[in-house]
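Convert to structure. Protein one:
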Amino acid sequence: MKPKHDFEIEVNEAKKLVEAGKKVMLFESNYSEVQLLSETFSIDEEKVEIIDINDFQIVYMHYGEEAEIKKIAGKFEEAVIVCQHGNTSRVFADALAENGVKAYSLYGGIAGILSG
């Protein structure tokens, strides 16, 4: 099955973005997932940023002032966002788009990398 949204990207496209200097941001903080992303994207483990769940709540659930939401959303500009199966990252990329921020969701997430 192919991605349904413009902001959902497959691993090969994500690799190109990361090679071009875009950030990789992960919802989980499991070391093995950080290590997998590091290997997949050929980057140092320290370059895999962990998403603060509070940032997700502020942007997705619109907690806080509009200026605060825009500021937090801006941290994710053109980032490749990864979660376990690609669902949370897809929802978050959509919420970011609603706030004028272009971010990418890795289609299939960690599970997609492992099965590919």
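Protein two, convert as well:
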Amino acid sequence: MQNYIRRWEALSGNIRGSIIILIASLVSVLMSSLIKHVGQTIPVIEILFFRQIMVLIIISPVILKNRATVFKSSIYGMHFLRATLSIVAMYLGFSAVVNMPLAEVTAISFARILFTTILAIIFLREVVGIRRWTSVMFGFVGVLVIIRPDPDNINIYALMAVVSAMFVSVVQILLRKISQIDNASTILVFHSVTITLVMAVPTYFQWVMPSLDEMIFIVMIGSLMSLMQWMFIKALKVGEAAAIAPMEYVRLIYAGIIGVVFFAEIPTIWTFSGAAIIVASTLYTMRRNALKGAPK
């Protein structure tokens, strides 16, 4: 065992981070797959509520350890806004997961990087040149290729996936602002507690008693989400973000395989084409973001 640990530690930080991201991406797709399965009989909001309960259980030591200060903040409004937008993003995103092929939803979710670029211009006053603007527009063409909007036959769930990606971007922009004011434990705890309390209301009105099997799956969903978040944090701790972030695109492969094997979802040529365009544009966008001082 010690020999394996030494071999692991001998690897460069970027290689270790990339390996962790590859595993975390698989965990992410497995979580989405369970939500897709359980969501056929249990309302999405109820699944998300139980998932948040699991998160609260896991972070309870942080709450107890810092109970005197963890809820103190001068920006309660921003915390509540972030939590509210997170709920909308999760509900729309996982509703799309339940009702659309996994590969399609996964590909559309990567549009969040493109939305983040636009929002950074508006709210963070970042300067973006013609190259990144072209990349962003190219990426949205990829989204249109996948969802193929038709006025006579609008795919509401595809639109949900797009709006979810946009809201995730807004949440990320808010997090940048909040993290400059409050510490990590306050951000984590306030976000988790607020989401759980807000979700409790619609869960009560949409309540469906889960079976034992469904309850086990829901517990697994919460556990997998916590594991995924921990792994992403660990990966960013040992590796450079610009080097390991592209590894997350393996989620497309995982989603395609799981979709075919467990849900009989055969990706179309439109899904492959649109995903290729989105991946290419977001990789270019991340590369331009990483080049400090270079023309954007």
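The chain has a mean pLDDT of 84. Residues 29-290 form one domain.
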